[in-house]
Amino acid sequence: MFIYYVRLALLSYRRNPILSSLMVLAVAIGIGAYMVIFTLNYFMGGDPIPHKSSQLYHIQLDYGNPAFPDFDPPPQLTYIDTMALLDLTTDYPRTATSKFVGVVEPENQEIRPFSVSGRGNFSDFFTMFDIPFQYGSGWDRSADEGRQQVIVLSQELNEQLFGGADSVGETVHLHGYNFTVVGVLDNWTPVPKFYDVNNGPFDPIEEAYIPWHLIVSLRLDRAGNTNCWQAPEGDGFQAFLNAECAWIQFWVELQDRNAYEDYLNFINSYAAEQKSFGRLQQPVDKRLFDVNEWMIEQEVLPDETRILSALAAMLLAVCLLNTVGLLLSKFLGKAPEIGVRQALGAHKGSLFIQHVIEAGFIGALGGVLGLGVAALGLEGIKILMGDMIVSDWMHLNLTVVLVTIALAIVSTVIAGLYPIWRACNINPAIHLKLQ
Amino acid sequence: MEFGPILRALLRNKLGIILIAVQIAFTMTVIVNAIYIINQRGELMSRPSGTDENNLFYIRSIGFGQNFNEETTVADDLARLRQTPGIVDATVINTVPVSNSGSSSAFLLEPGELASSVPSAIYYADHRSLNTMGLELVAGVDFTEADVLIRESSSNANADTVIITQALAEQLFPEGAQAAIGQVVYTPSDQAVRIIGVVRQLQAPWPLWEDIENSAIFPEIVIDGASLYLIRTEPGEQDRLMPMVEEMLGASNEQRILRQLRTMADTREESYRIDSVMTRILSIVIATLIFITAMGIVGLAVFSINRRRKQIGTRRALGATQGSILRHFLVENAIISGFGVLGGAVLTIAFNMFLVQTFNMPRIDWYYIPAGMLALLLVGQLAVVGPSRAASRITPALATRSV
């Protein structure tokens, strides 16, 4: 029966090819455009680390100066607080992290020295964020404390320096010091780059990772946001470190409710204690943010995608209204045929199914074509955005493909319900008389 | 005119009218708001930075190795650059205007008076920065070589003179630029600085910053391992000079790497890329929507005409002219579209209020609404002209046939 109805649908398509194609096109464009925006939102606003996002917490403290009007608390920590929290947070996996830039001088004299973007972090960073390794692994906590000159390379940098070979144990000459390679990352593109959203949430990952303490002890060139709300007292690097300047991100992993409560108490009492010393005078609403809360707090999803979401929803609405209108006309135009079928004994039920299938058929065609529209749209956005953001992730995945086709069929059938109902309630006698 | 019969005929197919009207309302909402966003982004993108952008490029030099002396390298590089024919001037600066990355601070009228502080972008550059960027001095004097302070990045002692933009001067001293000259203002760390000059315009590096016109230049060269040279060329010389400069600097000192050889025009393009991408996407959306809606109107018109062929034939047989049939369908469409654009006006304003509240965008100008209504009425009429003309050519003889 199903096949028969599909054949009827095909016949009906052929009877009004232009009108039917118009419907398919409308569905395709509406669904395609919506899918482009859905894909952008799905990744850019999605959960970058779903299995752990509610266990990883970013810390924010009560920074700012009440005398400064409209001062948003900076999303990072000062050196003083970072050092205190590192000492007091040894029970839980935790990492302070910040960016640097450095010059790498390759052993191979044929390669000119070049500058790399780097990150200082703690050993727990790699395990907390489930970072995949191609060779070797991260370092351990003793390397953090011992300020050992070890380095983890990104896949790209390893390719550039060692031709992609297993380089564990090799030496990298960075910022005038020798670092021993302990690991090479596998391909890893977190979207958004959740562990550091305040320095470009869609930037590529860093190329080199070293124990965080070395940024200070080897005086590497810090990079990324630095936000001060009180001038350093005195001159020099130490004065900067002691100042109310936030430039370090701090993450802690709290695996269950108890750990969370425990840590929340700890951080609240830390803040209260510091406040009694005359620091942390600008209260914040919340001190611990899990990954998703942090993405929202930091407004990672650009306004543009949110505006486009609303517009795409309206575009889809227009396309579906269009389809309803055209389906209505088409089904009403078929009144004589429906009259004949009813007179020959077709149930309302089977007429209903026939027309649901006809509407679904248009929807399915529209959905498949919509996938093409969506793929084209994403490709277009990729070209327009150029190298401004990492866009490897910008493609249709299976979820999106399935959602597209399902959405197309379901919305066309829903859009077609009224026309179908009208079509099934045609009085056969009138149309038979005319034949 | 036969308004009544048209309306009564229309009311026989209420849902059809509602569908088209709602479709037109949504189309209008999207199109009008999209055009408004496009115009707004266009305005953002067309603001001048105050610099001679078309003739500026820059290059970054990063020293390495123990023998690298940044101070002598900078002096040597600048001397070389300024001697090069085709180069108007060059300066060493902490960041490039419109580049989205830079440093900001604030100025205070009295030490410690944070509540009255005026935010400003901070540029650190040497005494040739005004001529290099092509800034126009409206009051006071330019820096001299004696003003320039060379300092380590970890030192926060500023130079004691500053040149600020007119917008910043007016915020600090409402009497205007001239009144600001010679005044002493304070940094947040209570250091006194004297305003020696005011320039007409120099934008802060962040296009979206609300205080974008507030900038200040300190005559300082910051020694921090990396030096950024901003270079102004004679018109048309940029393409020739860029590779030459890179080669010249590279050859003069091996203890460094050169990066980011870029033009200011490219930097602007990148800083505003999201806006231009948005503009293009919205243009495509507008074109698509107009097409879909117009096609929908055509489709429905064709259908409704086909269903009424007999009635049309009868009217023709009873003496209606081709013109009156044509008019019938044009008026019919105008009525439907009229409802649509009325709803569209309400929906457009509602959606704009949502944009204003959620994204802090300025409110839409009133004239967008009537313009949008007119445009959509016109689209409707154009879409229905074809089918209506076909309808007007139906022969009266049709009335006598049964099918």
Features:
heterodimer; A: 435 residues; alpha+beta; 13-stranded mixed beta sheet; 15% strand; elongated; B: 403 residues; 2 domains; eight-stranded mixed beta sheet; four-stranded antiparallel beta sheet; 12 helices; 12 strands; 50% helix
Overview of this structure, please?
The complex is a heterodimer of chains A (435) and B (403). Chain A is α+β, with helices and mostly antiparallel strands and 435 residues long. Chain A folds into two domains: 2-45 and 303-434, no CATH class; 56-297, no CATH class. Chain A is built from 15 helices and 13 strands. Chain B is α+β, with helices and mostly antiparallel strands and 403 residues long. Chain B contains twelve helices and twelve strands. In chain B, strands 3, 4, 5, 6, 7, 8, 9 and 10 form an eight-stranded mixed β-sheet that branches. Chain B has a four-stranded antiparallel β-sheet with strand order 2-11-1-12. Chain B starts with a helix and ends in an 11-residue tail after the last helix. The model of chain B has no long low-confidence stretch (mean pLDDT 89). Classes of the chains: A alpha+beta (435), B alpha+beta (403).
